[in-house]
Design goal:
- The chain is mainly alpha-helical and about 160 residues long.
- It is built from seven helices and two strands; from the N terminus they run ααααββααα.
- The chain has a single domain (about 5-135), classed as Orthogonal Bundle (Arc Repressor Mutant, subunit A).
- Strands 1-2 form a two-stranded antiparallel sheet.
- Helix 2 (about 35-45) crosses helix 5 (about 95-105) and helix 3 (about 50-55) crosses helix 4.
- The longest helix has 27 residues, at about 5-30.
- The chain starts with a helix and ends in a 28-residue tail after the last helix.
- About 20% of the residues are buried.
Length: about 160
C-alpha cells in the first residue's frame, strides 16, 4: 500500500473514531458531546452563567443557550435567577445531570490528552509539527476549532430514534 494511502486511511480513522464516539454517546446515553461537556464543566466548576460556560467551552453564547435548553428540558440542569439581581442567571447541575455524567464515558479528547501525556516532549512536538502540516495541506489553517474532539457543529444535536432534542 502506498504511503499516501496509509496517511489518508489514518486521517479517516481519526474522523471515524470521533464520529463513532459521538454516535455511541447519543445512542447509549442520549447526549451529544457538547451536552456532556456542559454537564462535566458544571460538575467541575459548580454553578456558572451561560456566558462563562461559552467562554470556557470556546462556543458562542447562542450555541451554549441551545445546548442548555435541551439539557434543561431533560432535567439535567436548571436555571436559577440571582436573588439580588434577577437579570443574572446561573446554571446548576441537577442530580439527574450528575447521574448522566457518571454513566457516560470519558470524553474522547480527555482520553487522547491522557495518552499524549505518556509521550516524551519530543514525540509531542513531532506530532504537533506533523499535524500542523496536515492542517496546512488540507487548507484548514483558517478553520476555527476548540481544543476538544467532537464531530460536526458543536451545537447540533446528534439524531437518535429516541432523541428529545
Amino acid at each position: 500500500m502506498a504511503i499516501d494511502e496509509n496517511i489518508l486511511r489514518s486521517i479517516r480513522r481519526i474522523i471515524r473514531a470521533t464520529d463513532l464516539q459521538s454516535r455511541r454517546l447519543a445512542s447509549e446515553h442520549r447526549l451529544t458531546t457538547p451536552q456532556l461537556l456542559c454537564l462535566r464543566l458544571l460538575a467541575q466548576e459548580g454553578p456558572l452563567t451561560p456566558g462563562s460556560m461559552a467562554k470556557e467551552m470556546y462556543l458562542s453564547q447562542a450555541t451554549v443557550t441551545g445546548i442548555l435548553d435541551r439539557l434543561e428540558r431533560r432535567g439535567l440542569v436548571e436555571r436559577r435567577r440571582d436573588q439580588s439581581d434577577r437579570r443574572k442567571v446561573s446554571i446548576h447541575l441537577t442530580p439527574g445531570g450528575d447521574d448522566a455524567i457518571k454513566r457516560a464515558p470519558r470524553p474522547l479528547h480527555e482520553r487522547f490528552a491522557a495518552g499524549l501525556e505518556t509521550l516524551s516532549p519530543a514525540e509531542r512536538d513531532d506530532i504537533d509539527r506533523v499535524l500542523a502540516k496536515v492542517v496546512e495541506l488540507m487548507e484548514a489553517r483558517d478553520v476555527d476549532a476548540a481544543p476538544l474532539i467532537a464531530p460536526g457543529d458543536l451545537g447540533a444535536p446528534v439524531k437518535t430514534p429516541r432523541n428529545e432534542d
